[in-house]
Model the fold of this input.
Amino acid sequence: DLGRVILKGKASSTLDKLNPTEEEYNELIKFYDNWYNLDIDKETIEEKYNSYNFNEDITNKYKDKLLKYYELRDLNIELLDKIKELKNNNKIYILSDNNKDASLYYKELFKGLDGYVFSYEYNTIKREGKLFDIFLEKYNLDPKDCYFIDDTKENILIAESKGINAHQYINNEDLFKYFEDNNI
Done:
């Protein structure tokens, strides 16, 4: 997973980097509500932004940054270093619920991995279950040979129901211990 694993915090945490006033923050935070249609490619980021009809001051000050919020996300550098190390003996894939614009950015940012499955490409998200099947089929993987890391318990349970080894991400220390305990 990307969000709250390889990427720190939620997408909405990028608002803190923009230093909005409290009033602006209370308006702008609405942009981060319900991303389902984005994640299944039924809506673009710009369409979502425009649906809120923000006032001209907010639009002039924040629109460009919100449309490219993904460029403001902080990376979990310690985990990325571990991924580089693990890549020597393992295949590493990204399976993520994400919109098209963010996904294209992340594919470029994390190029060199063995593959990517993003929800927007298949019009389904992880919690619907089918995205795991698509991932396994696309890369011809045996689920018992796979390890899935996600911050959401529901996604962990779905992965396990597909026969995938799964671990809920709490923090790097916990995850690295999981890798060690499983000889990954």
About this structure: The beta strands are 93-96, 115-118, 147-150, 165-168.
